[in-house]
Amino acid sequence: MNESMLLEDSLKLEMNKTGGSNRLSGFSSARNLTFQLAYTGRTLRFLLRKDLNQDFQNLATDGEKLMKFIDSLSANEKQLVGSGWSNISSFNKSLSSRLPVIKSLSPNSTLSDGNLRSFGKTLIFLDSIKYPEFNFSSMVSAINYLKSSRVGQSEKVLNAEQSLIKLEGLQYASMRQNGTLGTLLGQADNFFTTFFSEKPDDMSWW
User: Model confidence over 49-60: pLDDT tens digits?
Assistant: First the structure.
């Protein structure tokens, strides 16, 4: 057993001795905060990529080619593919108009106070970004059907799939609940301030 595992086991034992695990359960928003932090982290990595503009252009080009390819299929095949890519033209136009705004925004990296609430304020800029409608799951479903069909190895299908994968971050951006993260971090800040400043009755940390 390595040192990190021993430390983790020791911490768990100490938490159980002091009732810490039960006290942590008092933070009812922990699950939602965890998800919102995960979505925010992936959104930030996505927006700060240097090749983001090129990835948008690739999706526009490959998406248009895929739609023309889908239009050439039989009526039955088009029905099975679904409408996931049918709005690619309007989606591309929307992205083109919003990309300069997205790229001009940047996080405020200065923490006025060393706490979670202050950290949340540095991420407020993400709430001002308006994303176009992006039905990622429907587009993925269409690709999956095409790949399993007689045209599965078509270059147009494979290129569109790769372009879509690179824009997966848009899906996580749409899953963020604007205005929520700052509130949740504020609640966490209050909870942990109390958690680490108080000890359960008749219990010792040592």
Answer: 888 888 888 998
